[in-house]
Amino acid sequence: MNQKGRRPVSYASVALDIPTRAIDAAYDYLVPDGLAATATVGATVLVPFSGRDVVGYVMDVHEEPPAGVAPGRVRPVTQVLAEPAFDAAAARVANAVEQALETEGDETPRIEQIQDAVEAELMRQGFEATAKAYILYRAERTRIREAKTSLMQAIDEITNVDARQSDMKRDNANIDGNTAMGMFSLIIHDFRKPLH
Where are the beta strands (DSSP E) in 63-183? Predict the structure, then answer.
């Protein structure tokens, strides 16, 4: 509260949920008095943008108006749609990851670059336990993805390669790998390998 008992004017930096490369920064919006308690970091909000209302996420709340814009010209947050999905620490990590990726100079970062930047930033900001959990999660997802890829390659070989050219189909001399039942048996056998 200020000297007159009024809440200071606050502004929300909102990351817009618009699938375009043209938007590379958060936009500042006025937080109306009626939304001050709920338009907090991590909240999902509805804001005006380019003649329509769009969904965005509050990344920061501050009392300074955006640079170069008269405070009276800043458009207000229209509505709070959902309570915070993340906190200020997560917003700081996300902002730091974004800045790190921008300095790398690649136009569109690969998923591995993003994940590596997240790991590094989590550790840099002191979230070692979270970084460890994220590293383990990535390793498990990689293992599952590789098992699926291996399985799909095996199924492709079983169904599309003649038994005379496929070592996989000749593993069991009692199964004719060129028949439907033989292919089915080989697929089931190969499917069970990653599970053991």
Answer: 79-82
Q: Which residues contact 90 (CB under 8 A, 6 or more apart)?
A: 42
- The Cα 171–Cα 176 span in angstroms is 10
Amino acid at 69: V
Q: At what angle do helices 128-160 and 111-124 cross, to 10 degrees?
A: 160
**Residue 60 parent element (H or E):** strand 52-62
- In a 13 Å sphere around the CA of 95, the CA atoms on its Cβ side amount to 19
Q: State pTM to two decimals.
A: 0.66
- At 59-75, the pLDDT tens digits run 999 998 888 888 889 99
User: Is the dihedral angle over the CA atoms 42, 140, 116, 120 positive or is it negative?
Assistant: positive
pLDDT digit string, tens, across residues 159-181? 676 666 665 555 655 565 556 66
Report the SS3 class of residue 47: strand
Sign of the torsion angle spanned by Cα atoms 110, 112, 115, 121? negative
By the 8 A CB rule, do 29 and 78 touch?
no
Helix (H) or strand (E) holding 125: none
The DSSP call for residue 164 is: G
Distance CA 192, CA 38 (A): 50
Tell me the C-alpha to C-alpha distance, in Å, between residue 174 and each of 17, 123, 158.
58, 55, 15
The Cα–Cα gap between 185 and 175 comes to: 8
